[in-house]
Amino acid sequence: MKNKLFILIFFLLSHLAFAQKNLLGKVVDDAKQPIFAANVYWKNAVQAGTTTDFDGVFQLVVRQLPDTLLVSFVGYESKQIVINKVTDTLKITLVSTAGLLQEVSVVAQDPISQDFSVTKLDKIQIYTNPLASGDALKAITLLPASTNTEETANPVLRGSSADRSRVVLNGVPIYNPVRNSQLNGLGNFSLFNTEIIQKMYVYASNPPLTYGNSSAGLIEIETIKKLPTNQLQIALGLANTGVFWSKKLGKKNFVQVYGNRQFADAFLGVNKKNIPRLNNFTTTDFGCNTFIQFNEKTTWNSFVYLIDEGFSYKNHSYTYEGNNLANKQRGFWINNFSKKYANSLLTFNTLADKSRQDYSFGNIASTVHQQQFFAALNYKYVGFKNISWQTGLQYDYSNYDANGKVPIYFYALSPTAPTFTTKNLVENHLLEWYFYTSWDIRPELNLSVASRLNIPTGTQNFHNSKQIAFRYQPSNKHRWLLSGGNYYNYSTPNYLNPKFVQLDSWQFALDYDFKGKNLDFSSAIFHKQEGGEQTLLNGLLSKKVNTWGFEVALQKEFGKYVVLNVANTFLSQRQQIGEKEYRTADDMAYFVKAVATFRHPKIASLSVSYTTREGRYYTPVVGAMYQPAIDTYQPILSQEINTAQYNAYHNVSLTVNRLFKVNKSALIVFASVNNLLNTQNERQFFFDKEYKNWTVDTYQLQTFYMGAVWQWNY
Amino acid sequence: MKNLIVFALLLGACQNTGTDVLAAQSYTQQATVFQADNLLNGVQQKIYNAFVQGMMTQKDEQLAQIKTDLATLYQQKNQNLIQYWRAYLAYYHAIYALKLSKKDLAEQYTDEGIDLLDEMKGKNSEDYAMLALLQSFSIQFKMGIKAPFISSTVKSNAEKAMQLDKENPRGYFVYASSDFYTPEQYGGGKEAEQYLLKAVALPAQKVQNALLPSWGKEEAYEMLVKLYIKKEKWTEAKKYFQEGIAVYPNSYGINQLASKLVGK
Predict the structure, then answer these.
(1) DSSP SS3 for A365
(2) CB contact under 8 A, A39 and B119
(3) A110/A92 same-domain check
(4) Are residues A91 and A113 in the same domain?
(5) What ipTM describes this predicted complex?
(6) In this predicted structure, what is the pLDDT of residue B37?
(7) Of the candidates A627, A613, A596, which has an alpha carbon nearest to the alpha carbon of residue A690?
(8) Is B9 on the interface with A (CB under 8 A)?
(9) Model's pTM, two decimal places?
(10) N or C: which terminus of chain A carries fewer CB neighbours within 10 A?
(11) Digit-coded pLDDT (tens) for A325-344
(12) For residue B160, what is the nearest residue in chain A, using CA coordinates?
């Protein structure tokens, strides 16, 4: 009996001893994958918790029931579960917060660039580009995708004319984004001050259809969203003085105000011999960029820009030589509103742009008034796990009002040659709706599709732009991009084509990029078919252009201080004039750009570039016919269009700059030489009265530029 | 009758004991499983101790051993967290090499750490903070060409760390650290203070977890005191010195600043 009692007590005691219960559970993510090292604890006993193992399994001692269990891990939403009793293994699924938060934050900063063939340029790359003279649009000319053969700042991408590509600033299109257009000797510059730029994206082809009115490429510029420090900057150069002032207004808000005055005296004084035909130029511009962050979710950016430019140079066109005078006043105002929600972003962008331009040369005189108004409402949603989509409505109104005298005979430009008066007012209301979606099929495979269509107004045709792209990125090292689409845009009216003409294109491109440790390689093969009537300089009408191209670029670092970039583009291009096909002027077997950069903070930063390409093709003059009524010879062009070729183009340019630290301020001194070897690159021929003799007009000869910028941070 | 009652009680007792024996077995299993990832338990302190050992003996055997063990564990378990700790070890291995004047080796370890995190898919706040820390550290090896490009990457990764987890002190610390070491001419030194204050106000870990990182807060105290000493704001310097010492009494970094505060 005693034994039995003893055994009974023993079992009872042991029952008490083993009374502790354990809660067994498994923590997984929404893809059913186990989460390792997650925190599991009772709400009121944080210190006595446990962590999950590699299989997501945990075991936690139960103190009392009911109780609240907390499960958390960085990157996931914490979960609270009320436990009433211990059952079988508890299955807990945590939802990732990473995807949502990251997307919405990133959306506000980076456009949808990853899905497209795009090159990113930041401020430093613009400043150290030897051909750019610190100008954002000119900095693009060293990219392999730039096929600009005219030394201008106009965006010429993958063989398409500049008017097919668009420049977008903070989501609004800026038409004619250059100043001193037609200036000979200094080259064009863009309207953009590099200091306000945070990022520039260059889409060589298949530009995202979240922007419209492009049938070739797109350049997307974003101004800065954050000002780290107040700064005053004073710039002085051979042709420029400028002030740039950045001021913080509270923690997140800021304003940037700048003004520049450009003048010819000093620049011409140094370079007159090599720019004999430039008489004078002056430009005054003013810009004000304001950024206000109302709260965590809402921001407003406002940018005002005003410019007054004028220049005069000796021009030679056909057989007339005389002074070309031009002046232009322009102002535009861009406003951007953006509001972040839990899973989405709403933006509203507007632009008002007005300009007046006077131009005279020979018997051409014109006054052009242009107005543009743009408004766009965009909505992007990233709430689904692997799919994001974006939609928007855009209204783009353009008005072109040109008055003046135009020569009756395109080859007779002397002031006494006959003209007729033109009065031309055209406008275009472009109302478009777009939809874009991007689907991460797998982590390394993405598909994006977009469609953009207009709601026809006036005499417009209906058009539907569409595109599709596959991105395959197996690792950070390799990226493949296959993209294609059909695009529509309207030309901007000018002297030769004073109306809004609908242009279109079909494009396909295959891009491959490789990023190694100190070696970057990129290549692309593309094909385009472009349509839409355009009048060429020699009066001919071009209807269709067919392009095949191949680009390859390499960037390699040598040691700590040297980087070498080499790129080549092969372009095969044909155009249809009349019923036949001819090569275009830019049909290039090679277009090589090489840049070597040496940068040592204690010595200097030096960039040397070498550009070489085949000469442009042109249609030779084979004779002249005298027109007695106007006492002028008319040139007879060969029937064989674009069969003659200028000499091969070679250009070596360099820029050097050095930063000096002086207490809280910095002094940057720079100098650049364009066409160091003074190579005579043929650009066109100037004929005498009877087209018997000619002189060669060249591209920019050797010109020298220098300046200094003083920066004071306070 | 009595026997029946005893028998019934015994049966009841047996059942409970039976279940508990099973539970106890799985607990043992659990402990066995845990042996395998025992390496990661308190790994941050292990790596730091191995680093200190290396500095004293001028030999990195312990660091190298943990490095090998982590690599082996990753082969078996393929978890992002293991890669994180491999990168953390690479950081300390690089500091060790630098202190021994082996600059090339230091650069190599730093680059290895960066590669590990670069390749990682689905990075969380901790991963971005660690990546920003390594990239910031790598700037000293990449003078000339790359330096300006790396600083902006450091900043954007630190910003991602802060955005992904507003209560992670490591994001704020790395952002502040990058600003602290950026020369004034380039706009540096403006934001370090506010971000360091944020870092020290947050708990090192929301929930104590020996497998997850807890660094950053101690370093933030040290940097904050240094910042105030530089600006000669002695009241603030002493305040945060005392606060830091109270939380981290054994911190070598904070303690050595005491000499600069004597008599101020």
Answers:
(1) strand
(2) no
(3) no
(4) no
(5) 0.75
(6) 53
(7) A627
(8) yes
(9) 0.75
(10) N
(11) 989 999 999 999 999 888 88
(12) A102
Residue B144's pLDDT is what? 59
Other beta carbons within 10 angstroms of residue A190's beta carbon come to 23
Strand order through the sheet with A79-83: A45-51, A39-42, A67-72, A79-83
Q: Given CA atoms A401, A405, A408, A411 in this order, what sign does their dihedral have?
A: negative
Whether residue A63 is found in the same domain as residue A112:
no
Mean pLDDT of A474-485: 89
* Domain residue ranges in chain B: 41-122, 128-264
Q: B164–A97: do the CB atoms touch at under 8 Å? A: yes
CB A574 within 8 A of CB A549: no
- The region of weakest confidence among A164-168, A285-289, B194-198 is A164-168
Weakest-pLDDT range from A193-197, A289-293, A572-576 = A193-197
Residue A120: beta bridge partners?
Answer: A201
| pLDDT for res B263 | 85
Residue A102 pLDDT level (bands cut at 50, 70, 90): very low
| Mutation to test the B interface, candidates A16, A29, A54, A519, most B Cβ within 10 Å | A54
Residues A50 and A193 in one domain: no
Residue A83's domain comprises: 2-96
With CB atoms and an 8 Å threshold, state whether B187 touches A228. yes
Q: What is the CATH number of the domain that holds A11?
A: 2.60.40.1120
Using CA atoms, how far apart are residues B118 and A476, in angstroms rounded to an integer? Answer: 7
Distance between A539 CA and the closest CA of chain B, angstroms: 48
A166-169, strands of its sheet edge to edge: A118-122, A197-203, A218-223, A166-169, A172-173
Give a three-class secondary structure readout of A624-635.
EEEEHHHCEEEE
A14 Rama class: left (phi>0) / alpha (psi -120 to 50) / beta: alpha
Q: Answer yes or no: is pLDDT of A406 > 50.
A: yes
Q: Cβ neighbours of residue A127 under 8 Å, at least 6 residues apart?
A: A134, A194, A657
Cα B145–chain centre separation: 30
The beta-carbon neighbor of B187 closest among A15, A19, A713 is A713
Taking a C-beta distance cutoff of 8 angstroms, is the pair A275, A258 a contact?
no
**Residues in chain A within 8 Å Cβ distance of B191:** 228
Domain end residue (candidates: A96, A120, A135): A96
Give residue A22's pLDDT band: very low, low, confident or very high (50, 70, 90).
confident
Closest-CA residue in chain A for B76? Answer: A54
| Interfacial B residues in 30-59 facing A (CB < 8 Å) | 30, 33-34, 36-37, 40
Q: Are strands A562-577 and A344-361 parallel, antiparallel or unpaired?
A: unpaired
Whole-number pLDDT of residue A358: 92
Is A674 in contact with A702 (CB distance < 8 Å)? yes
Number of domains in chain A: 2
Given a cut of 80, whether residue B32 has pLDDT beyond it is no
Q: For residue A516, is pLDDT > 50?
A: yes
Chain A residues lying within 8 Å of B119, measured CB to CB: 475-476
A143 and A91, same domain (yes or no): no
Phi/psi class of residue A35: alpha, beta or left (left: φ > 0; alpha: ψ in -120 to 50)?
Answer: beta
A436 and A563 part of one domain:
yes
User: What SS3 class is residue A244?
Assistant: strand
> Does A385 lie in the same domain as A439?
yes
Of the candidates A37, A101, A713, the beta carbon closest to that of B164 is on A101
pLDDT band of residue A667 (cuts 50, 70, 90) is: confident
How far apart are the CA of A665 and the nearest CA of chain B, in angstroms? 6
Class of domain B128-264: mainly alpha
Burial of A163 (0-12, 13-18, 19+ CB in 10 A): buried
Q: Which of A20, A476, A560 comes nearest B118 by C-beta?
A: A476
